[in-house]
Amino acid sequence: MTFFPELKTERLVLRTFEENDMEALFALLSDEQVNTFLPWFPLKTPAEAVQFYHQRFAPQALPPQAYCYAICLKTDRIPVGYVAVKGDDSHDFGYALLTRYWHQGITSEAALAVIEQLRRDQIPLISATHDILNPRSGSVMRRIGMTYRYTYQECVQPKNQLVTFRMYQLDLNGKQNPTYDRYWQVSDVHYIETENNQNL
User: What does the pLDDT read at residue 194?
Assistant: First the structure.
């Protein structure tokens, strides 16, 4: 089982997901707008939320060096989103937030707190990707200090959609680490965009 500490920011509590969070998790993952750019389909039933939790978000389901934080407001500690980090060498950094909390800086606030925990845990780097049709996610990546590295195409499952992604990276160990290039290596279509294109 993976353990990671609870974190607090000015407005937020970041903690592990728990069994009694299923209603909140279903509200998040059944929202079609939230799920537009996530790899999985929106959940249809509360039972699917329970299954999703046990397969992906429960502490006992996480591999070593993986993290999954529920983003909660301090006022009620009910999850309104998540920040997750894969346990493999990509340390892929992902996040989602209920639509009614968008445009309030909550995702960036949560992400920065998690990044500081990753530094304490000596994670060397994080990578993150966003669909080029979702530039707001790229804005979050830049606000938390990540830098664009390259663009590539991938057929995303289970949606079976061909998506063009931008890949960002942030080095956490004080070194200039090599760019994480697995996506570049496995994609037949990959290139580096100009700075102007990245902001579109």
Answer: 87
